[in-house]
Specification:
Rossmann fold; binds GDP-alpha-D-glucose; 8-stranded mixed sheet; about 20% strand; 25 helices; about 725 residues; 4 domains; alpha/beta
Length: about 725
């Protein structure tokens, strides 16, 4: 298999130095995670693993030089550069990515800007990536798109490439709660969600992010999910949680290298064996660096005993230079560090050692290994790899991790000292707790966390994601197989034409007409009446509905067709009168009605329907989330009440119905079927109430068609009621 990794940045950045372009490794969590996975795969015995990494090379390359540049870099790296004009990068990367999505998704709504010109360019750059991928994509490629810069890309690719390729998307930053996500202009928030739904699998770091995404999809696009699976445009899309890991052995192993050991020892000596607190971050307002310094300052103030006994190494890596908020935070840090050092420092002791630069890998490992305490206090962080890397490097000591509960990593690293980064007092106290933790407790905590990180490392993470992508895809393909294609439609029409005695059975709501928020309004239109007129001239036709006899008579008596009302309780043969098909005890209804009323009152917008053998609670007009909760409670309660009664609880499309067991569409359907020796039978239905008849016809020579893409016993599927009508038309015209 070949894997196409697509991210905004390539794993290296091209920089111009004295007129020449030089390549430098890019920093950041995404690059370090994916690079580790690719390194592992390159060196593993899976010989057919190939990959290409597509992304922006970090600088503008003149058009005349682009070809040469691409050839040069692809000699040593499996990469495809996507060239982006400098001004466009400004509106895209510095603009929509880092002045809108980044702050909003990290719960800094007041920093977010919503400029239309940035949105236009965001779309344009996503299109540019799409074109590049279309140019190079080959049969059997798997496409894995990363992060918030490319959220429209999955759908763009789906439109261009169809259903042929596996497309995965992983978001490295938090997905915010619906209330925050909805702050974005409506068109943008809708398009971004639709963009993501172009993928087969959408991955997040924590269950909370996955849940927030699913909630936004439900509230904004109205698409519900079943265990994280969304049916949309003929495909199954899954949203799931994959907490990114690190290359544990690489970090842990590097601490054993002679030069690293030497450097670790040197750091200790230079710091005169003072207790060392350490942190490293890209310069970013989300990383909570000022509050970290405030907490350290308070710690010194509250614990004068620690003066000259502890030192804080604060390593900051330059990032997103040129964006105002980043410059502001840099100035704030400079000031804060100055304050602490001047207030507490001495000629022979500086409480904060402050670095602002990139650190080569092995120096970073030495710093991790030398730190007695890691102080990681982001205000929001998708995951935070630094926390994990620190733990992996604690090999010969039992360092203590202080971790913000706002980092995705806190969900896994529960043995860390967890703090709220806005609580300076708590964080200051946590520093003391960490420094004074007894060795055994520290070691136990460390071992537990290390075990987890070793097992679910970055390779497992990527395998897990890609394995799930494959599975989701199979599920989609399974569904695809059942979808009636144009060719298959012709085959059905041919069978229909050849047959001597034909029967067409049809459900009504959701099958022949779309659902209306007001059921009384879902009347048959002229096109449908003509269609039924046409088909009933060629085949015996009957409508099997859950509606009452009144509604069906009023709308269909003018046609020469059979009818069945209330899920088979009543039958009216062609030209005949309504007959009750089953005779059951309905005394239960009186008692149940009260419970129905209680729940209907608790669920604004819902209403009750009483039929001869059933009671139904309709909730089409309700708030979808509230309805999910109430309906589950309702069903739960109903299960208790109905356990020793001969009743059935059915959950249809936005309706829960309780009815006598004998009343179902299978009985009514078989009534029509058994009347003649039919050699062509077709039944179409869209919801749970139709499953009984699908099941009864499972082993019979009959076409059973589920309208919609949910799981069903039916042998075939069509997308929606329009396609269902289309099928009837094809038969009527045959
Ligand atoms: C995003 C999300 C999520 C940093 N400075 C140097 C350096 N690094 C490496 C670290 C670590 C990575 O960069 C930073 O990763 P983080 O996870 O802490 O943060 P982001 O860059 O914001 O990453 C984040 C991540 O994506 C992965 O999904 O965890 O929440 O925001 O690997 O080691 N490496 C070297 N020198 C440096 O100066 N060698």
């Amino acid at each position: 298999m070949r894997l196409l990794i697509v991210s905004n940045r390539l794993p290296f950045t091209a920089v111009r130095e004295e007129g020449e372009i030089k390549l430098k490794p890019s920093s950041g969590g995404l690059v370090s995670g994916i690079s580790s996975y690719l390194d592992f795969m390159k060196n593993s015995p899976v010989s057919d693993f190939e990959y290409l990494w597509l992304g922006w090379p970090g600088t503008w390359v003149e058009e005349t030089l682009q070809k040469k540049f691409s050839e040069e870099v692809s000699k040593n790296h499996s990469v495809v550069p996507v060239f982006i004009q400098e001004e466009e990068m400004e509106n895209f990367y510095q603009g929509l990515c880092n002045k809108t999505i980044w702050p909003l998704f990290h719960y800094f709504p007041s920093y977010a800007r919503y400029l239309e010109e940035n949105w236009t360019v965001y779309k344009k750059i996503n299109e540019q990536f799409c074109e590049k991928i279309c140019e190079i994509v080959a049969e059997d490629d798997t496409i894995w798109i990363h992060d918030y810069h490319l959220m429209l890309l999955p759908q763009m690719l789906r439109e261009k490439l169809g259903n042929k390729y596996k497309i995965g998307f992983f978001l490295h930053i938090p997905f915010p709660s619906f209330e925050v996500y909805r702050i974005m202009p409506s068109r943008w928030r809708e398009e971004l969600l639709r963009g993501l739904l172009g993928a087969d699998l959408v991955g997040f770091h924590t269950n909370e992010y996955t849940h927030s995404f699913l909630r936004s999809v439900l509230r904004i696009l109205g698409l519900p999910h079943e265990m994280g699976r969304i049916s949309h445009e003929g495909r199954v899309i899954k949203a799931d949680t994959f907490p990114i890991g690190i290359d544990f052995e690489k970090f842990s192993g590097s601490t054993e290298k002679e030069n690293v050991k030497k450097e670790t020892a040197e750091i200790k000596t230079k710091l005169k064996n003072l207790k060392t607190i350490f942190s490293v971050d890209r310069l970013d307002y989300t990383k909570g660096i000022p509050n970290r310094l405030e907490a350290f300052k308070l710690f010194l103030k509250n614990n004068p005993d620690y003066i000259k006994k502890v030192v804080f190494i604060l390593a900051i890596v330059p990032s997103r230079v040129g964006i105002d908020h980043y410059q502001e935070i840099k100035n704030e840090l400079d000031k804060l560090v100055g304050n602490i050092n001047s207030e507490f420092g001495d000629i022979d002791w500086q409480p904060v050692i402050y670095q602002y630069r990139n650190i080569p890998f092995e120096n970073l490992v030495a710093l991790y290994a030398a730190g007695d305490v890691a102080l990681i206090t982001p205000l929001r962080d998708g995951m935070n790899l630094v926390a994990k890397e620190y733990l992996a490097c604690q090999k010969n000591a039992a360092g203590v991790l202080i971790l913000s509960e706002m980092a995705g990593a806190a969900k896994e690293l529960t043995e860390a000292v967890i703090i709220n980064p806005n609580d300076i007092k708590e964080t200051a106290a946590a520093i003391k707790t960490a420094l004074e933790m007894d060795g055994e407790t520290a070691l136990n905590n460390l071992k537990m966390m290390q075990e987890r990180l070793r097992n679910y490392n970055v390779v497992e993470w990527a395998r897990d994601f890609l394995g799930n992508l494959e599975k989701t895809r199979l599920k989609s393909v399974e569904m695809d197989v059942k979808i009636i294609t144009q060719d298959y439609l012709k085959k059905i029409a041919k069978d229909f034409q050849k047959a001597q005695k034909k029967l067409i059975l049809l459900d009504y709501d959701g099958t022949l007409v779309p659902f209306d928020r007001n059921p009384a309004k879902a009347k048959p239109d002229e096109e449908l009446l003509n269609l039924l007129l046409g088909i009933s001239a060629k085949a015996e036709t009957a409508i099997l509905s859950g509606r009452d006899a009144n509604f069906l008579s009023k709308n269909f008596d003018s046609l020469n067709i059979g009818l069945s009302a209330e899920h088979g309780a009543w039958i009216k043969e062609k030209g005949g009168t309504w007959q009750m098909r089953v005779h059951s005890d309905t005394s239960w209804k009186k008692e149940m009605l009260n419970i129905f009323k209680v729940y209907s009152n608790r669920l604004p917008g819902s209403f009750l329907e009483e039929k001869t053998f059933s009671l139904a609670l309709h909730y089409r007009k309700c708030d979808p989330e509230m309805a999910e909760i109430r309906v589950k409670e309702f069903i739960d309660e109903m299960v208790n009440y109905t356990s020793n009664l001969n009743l059935q609880i059915l959950r249809g499309s936005k309706v829960v119905e309780i009815r006598n067991y004998e009343v179902n569409k299978a009985g009514a359907g078989m009534f029509f079927i058994n009347k003649e020796p039919y050699d062509f039978i077709l039944f179409m239905g869209d919801d749970w109430t139709d499953e009984d008849l699908f099941r009864a016809l499972k082993d019979k020579n009959a076409y059973t068609v589920k309208v919609g893409l949910d799981a069903s016993i039916a042998k075939l599927n069509v997308y929606d009621w329009k396609k269902a009508r289309n099928l009837i038309k094809e038969l009527a015209d045959a």
